Each structure stands twice: as C-alpha cells, then as structure tokens.
Amino acid sequence: MPPSLRLEGSASYRGRAVFRPLSLEIGSAQWTCLLGPSGVGKTTILRLIAGLEDECEFDGRIDASDGQPLPGRVAYMAQTDLLFPWLDVLGNTLLGARLRRERSDTSRAEALIERVGLADHIAKRPHQLSGGMRQRAALARTLMEDRPVILLDEPFSALDARTRVEMQDLAAELLADRTVLLVTHDPAEAARLGHRIHLMLADGLREVAPPPIAPIRAYDDPTVFACQSELMALLRAPDAHAGAVR
What is the pLDDT of residue 245? Predict the structure, then answer.
C-alpha cells in the first residue's frame, strides 16, 4: 500500500502568512481533493510535499505513514504543463526516465499517449499542440512516473467538458492504488473524485463530506450535484477570500 501523508504547520512569505497553522490528512490509496480561493496556499502545500518550495518559510512537518522519506516517491503535475519545447509528445512523456538515465519503456509511454487521446500527435512538439493537448501530454508524463504519491495541481483545467470527464475517469482508473492529492477550483470535480474533500479558506481547513457513493461518481448523480452545491456555497461565502496572499 502507498503511504498516507500528514502535513502540519504554517507557511509564510516575506513575513506574511501564506497559510495559518493547519493539519491536512491525505489518505493511503485515496483521492484527497483540496479546494479554495486563489491565494490561500493550495499550490504551496503541493510544492512543500514535493520538496520544491524554496520561497516560503514552513514551520511544521510532513510525515509519511511508513516513516520513509518522500523524495523519489512523488510525482507532481504543476498548473503549467512544463513541456520541453525541443521534445515531441513521446519525448516529453519519457522525460523522467531520461533525466534519471534509466531505460525508457517506450511501449508503455505509447500506450499512455494513446489513452490520453494523443496517438495521432505523438511526434508533435509543444508549439504544435493546443492548450488542452499540452495538458494531456503533461498528464501522460505524470502517469508514466508510476509513483506511490501523486500531486496534481488543476490537471484538467484546460480541457473541454467532455475531455475533462474522460481524463478524470482515466486518471481515477490508473491511480486507483495511489495516494493522490488533487488541487482544483472545480467543485464538480471534487464531488466526482474525492474520497475526502477539504476546503482551504483564510481561517484554515474545513472538511466537507463527499457523496455517499464510491468514486469515481457519475457526473449527473444527484448526490454529486448536492455536494457540488454545498462546496460552491462555501466558496462564495463573504469571508472565503479574506487574507489570501498568493
């Protein structure tokens, strides 16, 4: 089983709080969804777990349930696709192995590229792709990493509605036995995918009960609509955006 994670603490940037003291539990082999207004520190949390945050001061700790260090066990998909412009879709998908000087599994990469709908574009470079295609290429690269902990920062935001649902289904299928933390601005996405759903607001975290059926849930299920509505109401509350800094 992949580890569960626990982040406890606070973060600041140039003397100003990014997020106040909080405790976030990320379940083993589950999707934990994190929503909240821009600037409350959601991406900072992902970057702290990934070991990439070097601008904020973090006063706290991040623990894995198995007691093992996280470096080397985390795959991170950022908001921007970060594709290398001189590599084609296949080359970008295989980038991790190349950087680690490992043998590339080209057959698996090609299969993933086909699953994300880019088989006809496998030899194209990023400038030849639409924004949605670039995001799907970045998703294929993340899935290729095959890590026990997956951090996703708005991974479906550039996709049209139909493709978004298809990629949610694919990611849920391929990451069913991984520990996933998903940052999203989309209440419907959290209601479909989350085993646990947290709202990150100016005054801390608030957990919202997911629909009472197992993910991945039908987008038109009444309980998904109800959860989505509850999340939207909380996000639209007058004090939800207070104190956001980044």
Answer: 47
Q: Which tens digit of pLDDT belongs to each residue from 116-155?
A: 999 999 999 999 999 999 999 999 999 999 899 999 999 9
Q: Yes or no: say if 178 and 214 are a contact pair by the CB < 8 Å rule.
A: no
Mean pLDDT score across all residues of the chain: 93
User: How many whole angstroms separate alpha carbon 30 and alpha carbon 24?
Assistant: 14
- CA atoms within 13 Å, Cβ hemisphere of 111: 8
Single pTM value for the model: 0.93
Give residue 113's pLDDT.
98
β-strand 204-208 against 196-201: which pairing, if any? Answer: antiparallel
pLDDT in tens, 56-113: 899 999 999 999 999 899 999 999 999 999 999 999 999 998 888 889 899 999 999 9
CA distance 150 to 158: 19
Quick one: average pLDDT of 7-30? 93
